[in-house]
Amino acid sequence: MTLIKSISGIRGTIGGQTGDNLTPVDAVKFASAYGMWLKDYTKKQKLTVVIGRDARISGPMIHNLVVNTLIGLGIDVIDLGLSTTPTVEVAVPLEKADGGIILTASHNPKQWNALKLLNEKGEFLSGAEGAKILNIAENEAFDFSDVDNLGEITINDAYMDIHIDEVLNLPLVDVDAVKAAKFKVVVDGVNSSGGIIIPKLLEQMGVEAVKLYCEPNGHFPHNPEPLKEHLGDICKLVVEENADLGIVVDPDVDRLAFISEDGEMFGEEYTLVAVADYVLLKTPGNTVSNMSSSRALRDVTNTHNGTYEASAVGEVNVVELMKKNNAVIGGEGNGGIIYPELHYGRDSLVGVALFLTHLANKKMKVSELRASYPEYFMSKNKIELTPQIDVDGILTAMEAKYKDEQISTIDGVKIDFAENWVHLRKSNTEPIIRIYTEAKTQAAADELAVRIMNEMKAIAGL
């Protein structure tokens, strides 16, 4: 059982002992720390925080604990109930709230949950701000309100619809073109809130939606990370239904993957590539993704005469570099689309709407669109961490071993070879070391991954 405190929020497994897992006591402690930090950060007497959750089984329990903790601190809560991460991010500035909390462990399995913390812009907190909250939590110097100054709860269950409206009102989203294309789409909502909001979005765009695992009961029918090895059912159903494509989201709807009409994966790395291609065609500019993302985005950006740069892994790092470079589109190779025209957060709804518009304008099959982009192949692997593994020591040794190659240590160790690359880093969300490789063929990517993993295991004495 695990409790991870990082730039991605407070994430842990449900049950077990306090301090080692996301127990009720831990949920209250970190919600209290966030509330205390927010009071100090804003210097305001009266605060409002937006709360939403995904459909995972522990959601109602954690939700009630967090909401009532904030009420106890004298903070008003706008409760969106069942929602998505990007929906809460959109709601915070629209409600002129002081912050937000999304209760979701994103792509993690059902035993996990988390508190994702937002500022008044509806954006994730910086590393420095997160560190202050962790310090407050450790000291537990909480100051709760008296009975006459408790916060109040306002229920607002309209924000999924409001979010959809905000997306459809974007200038680059062409609803008429999508309606004219008469698309048929299979949707895998992994039995979470995506099973509600994505079909609603498609319906308003005139798309026929075939629902697969769209009952928001939190019983994930497969591993909720939208990777090829988890998506056999939708790949099969797309072909059986003679659909134009398949759409897959994770439980909190900030990661997006497509299935081509032939039942093959479009590739989660190519979600951002395709959307960026469309956005850059209409609004030339710069792009940003993280260091673990495909070189294909760089190549597509170059064809549109833009500038591409890579950030450290983590949405807050991508957003920071996007703002610095005035990027018109960015995100992460895990299927996360960040389109600043709406908000600085990964948003599957924006991704779906822009992708369908692009596809309608291109008048080609999804497989043909995929074939039009530079061909790269990735291998994504991991090594489970144990207490005796010295992660920093392993990364330092690998950096030394490949010192003659192009190396970046902004986030772990990334080694750029002429024809391929490898990125080694400790995960922000799981007790693992991630090993990502990319090459011109799948065999080359796999071979590089195996070689690097064997070298790392030898260093660790595994």
TrEMBL record:
Task: Offer one Pfam family short name for this entry.
Answer: PGM_PMM_IV
Chain coiled-coil ranges: none
Cofactor(s) required for function per UniProt: Mg(2+)
Q: Which UniProt keywords apply?
A: Isomerase, Magnesium, Metal-binding, Phosphoprotein
Which BP terms does GO give this entry? carbohydrate metabolic process; peptidoglycan biosynthetic process; UDP-N-acetylglucosamine biosynthetic process
Q: Which residues form the Alpha-D-phosphohexomutase C-terminal domain?
A: 395-454
Q: Name one GO molecular function term.
A: magnesium ion binding
| Keyword Magnesium annotated | yes
Q: Which GO terms describe its cellular component?
A: cytosol
Signal peptide (residue range): none
What InterPro entries does the entry give?
A-D-PHexomutase_a/b/a-I (IPR005844), A-D-PHexomutase_a/b/a-I/II/III (IPR016055), A-D-PHexomutase_a/b/a-II (IPR005845), A-D-PHexomutase_a/b/a-III (IPR005846), A-D-PHexomutase_C (IPR005843), A-D-PHexomutase_C_sf (IPR036900), A-D-PHexomutase_CS (IPR016066), Alpha-D-phosphohexomutase_SF (IPR005841)
Name all Alpha-D-phosphohexomutase alpha/beta/alpha domain ranges: 8-142, 172-263, 270-376
Q: Which family does it belong to?
A: Belongs to the phosphohexose mutase family.
What NCBIfam families does its record include?
Arch_GlmM
Q: What is this protein called?
A: Phosphomannomutase
The organism encoding this protein is Flavobacterium caeni
